[in-house]
Structures are given as C-alpha cells and as structure tokens.
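Lab notes, practical 5.
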Amino acid sequence: HVFVREWVPIERWAELRCFVQGRRLVGVSQYDPGLGPLPELIENEAEIAACVQDLFDDARPLLPLDDIVLDLFVERSSDGFTARLLELNPFSPSTGAGLFRWDLSLAGAGDFDGSFRFRRS
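Output from the prediction step:
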C-alpha cells in the first residue's frame, strides 16, 4: 500500500527511531546522531519520552509484527508534546540503529536496553 498525505514540516531534532522487540519498546534513539546534541531533547527529555511511550501504547495492538522499528516525530504545542508515527521499518541490521548497535552475532539483536538515547554533548 502507498499512503499519501499532506506534507508536515518536521524539526530536525524531533525525529526519533523506536525499536520494538517482542511487542516491547526496547529503545528510542535520536534519528540522526550526526546532528550532535539537540537542546530540545536535552531540555525536554522526560516529556518527550512520555509522549513517545503514549504513542507506543496506542500503536502496540496495531503493529503488524512483533519485532519492528517505528520512525516518529514529536510536535510541540501549548499543551506539551505529541508523538506522531511516520513509518515502519524492519527490525534488522538493514535498518539504521541510531545510537544503538546491532550485534550480528546475536541474530540481529543488539544493545537495546529500553533507554532513550540522544547526544548530550
């Protein structure tokens, strides 16, 4: 299927990659680690992590696979932050790991420890 929708501008700091294994959120990473430290993530870590968890809780029963990677972005409003789903990717080393690391010796697993990783310095 191809889905087409209205273009939405996304701030560079706001795109995140979420790793799901066994229908559990096992890691969230800054989408592009090459951007370096992003003050928006540093200053709003707890609120952003909470809105990502809220989106995941809503999306979990709808996921087509137990192991998958979700790309999303975060929007800021006067009420706080809201996460929105962008796309789904395979849970495999062919998908970038962000600030995590794939370990091919573990059959595609990696160092996914449930943390929210982004550059702080």
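Observations recorded by the TA: The mean pLDDT is 92. The CA atoms of residues 49 and 69 lie 16 Å apart.
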